[in-house]
Amino acid sequence: MSLWALPRIGERLSASLSSSNHAVIKEACYEELRKLSWSGIPRQVRPITWKLLSGYLPANADRRECVLQRKRQEYFGFIQQYYDSRNDEHHQDTYRQIHIDIPRTNPLIPLFQQASVQEIFERILFIWAIRHPASGYVQGINDLVTPFFVVYVFEYIEEEVENFDVSSLREESLRNIEADSFWCMSRLLDGIQDNYTFAQPGIQRKVKALEELVSRIDDSVHLHMQQYEVEYLQFAFRWMNNLLMRELPLRCTIRLWDTYQAEPEGFSQFHLYVCASFLVLWRKEILEERDFQGLMILLQNLPTMHWGNEEVSVLLAEAYRLKFAFADAPNHYKR
Amino acid sequence: MATAPYNYSYIFKYIIIGDMGVGKSCLLHQFTEKKFMADCPHTIGVEFGTRIMEVSGQKIKLQIWDTAGQERFRAVTRSYYRGAAGALMVYDITRRSTYNHLSSWLTDARNLTNPNTVIILIGNKADLEAQRDVTYDEAKQFAEENGLLFLEASAKTGENVEDAFLEAAKKIYQNIQDGSLDLNAAESGVQHKPSAPQGGRLTSEPTPQREGCGC
């Protein structure tokens, strides 16, 4: 059930977040915040909740303002120190690639076609890339900035975000959004960095795990794919590399990430169960396809355009069930 | 959507390779959908497209793997080279660096495909004549020296896009006809007349056909 539909829980969540009421969020409150967030976070408290759940903000409300200021300064310190090096010989390939990719990020959403927004994305990605040379910038990471950016814009506006003109924001607000997005994206990537290092071992491992899991939970789907020689890597590589963002509308990704941040190891482990749940959700459509081409075209273009919170909740409930059944039972996992 | 019966005689596997941003996905999209997508999102790993075309009176189904240009995805994209009957090697006529990298793309293609794989060089973005950075003649010469087919094309206007896929298919078909391509060889990239469902090594599994085959 969604918190949107449960104003009282929303109020409790707001109350537990409010710094005036509680100087210190106790461990128990923090756990409650996680639990409440699992089923979806109301828009008005989503920015601060994401910052808390990701560990970017300390639970202690008295320290938050000071931490925020320090982290924001630190980020703009990086910009000052490193951003000019984007045209240096050893960084120019990285920068050029980011520069080419940014206009191709969310091409259908006007917000992301604004020059100042594209510059923010370039800075965030460039700084992250040169500070993480083991992976560097990998296509797909650009998508991962988007949900944070959108949610942190929400902090300053009431209206819809997709057509929002960022030039109406104060410069300081925009700088805060940029720094907060950088740090939260960095924390996310810390947990899944082996998705993006050489030969992408994290993705290879997770795709294998997905295959094993699906063979356990839905034999007919698994055998059907085998019969037509569809390999999981052929469609699920992107599911892992872009955390399903290419498969779902942005609003659904944001809702999904409420849960990923509330769930321990959400992005690195729980995502696997979500992918399995996502695949078998289409079992009817999959079983109707009678050749390789049809299956591949279907799996690359799953019809989620109309999806909203309800569909994501169903997806997550099934993923949770799978995790409960299989995560701590490695022998269940093996055939 | 379920597919129609197998109204084609061969399946040819293709790959599209080349630097990022040269327009590989746009060529594929133009070929399969007859539309130009400006700013289409970059390809992650590989993406798949398919279309049936006619070569010398034979219906041929093309299975096309569009690969990501970024180096980091090479571990994944390389596994698609094997078993390709045709390779479209694409550069951007307005960006010389993408042309300069062709020899490394060609080395990859030669090392990872079989000797019969037909490689066609495509100079994309031919509509941007004013920004041209690579001449037709030098690319033509490169192609001849390396035994490649060659065309300049535009995914935007559609110019020569059809022909790019067709020329490679004609050459593959010719190789089949003159016996230089052995259909029984592993990873020839060609499958003949699937009367059973495609995929599954064409087992004799009795899968019902959707519409009558007339027999």
Automatic annotation (TrEMBL), chain B:
GO terms for cellular component: cytosol; early endosome membrane; phagocytic vesicle; recycling endosome; trans-Golgi network. It catalyses: GTP + H2O = GDP + phosphate + H(+). InterPro entries: P-loop_NTPase, Rab14, Rab_GTPases_membrane_traffic, Small_GTP-bd, Small_GTPase. Residues 188-215 are annotated as: Disordered. It is found in: Cytoplasmic vesicle, Phagosome; Early endosome membrane; Golgi apparatus, trans-Golgi network membrane. One of its GO terms (biological process) is Golgi to endosome transport. It is a lipid-anchor. Its EC number is 3.6.5.2. SUPFAM superfamilies: P-loop containing nucleoside triphosphate hydrolases. GO terms for molecular function: G protein activity; GTP binding. Pfam families: Ras (PF00071). Keywords: Endosome, GTP-binding, Hydrolase, Lipoprotein, Membrane, Methylation, Nucleotide-binding, Prenylation. It comes from the Eukaryota. Its main location: cytoplasm. Gene3D superfamilies: P-loop containing nucleotide triphosphate hydrolases. Belongs to the small GTPase superfamily. Rab family. This is Ras-related protein Rab-14. It comes from Gadus morhua.
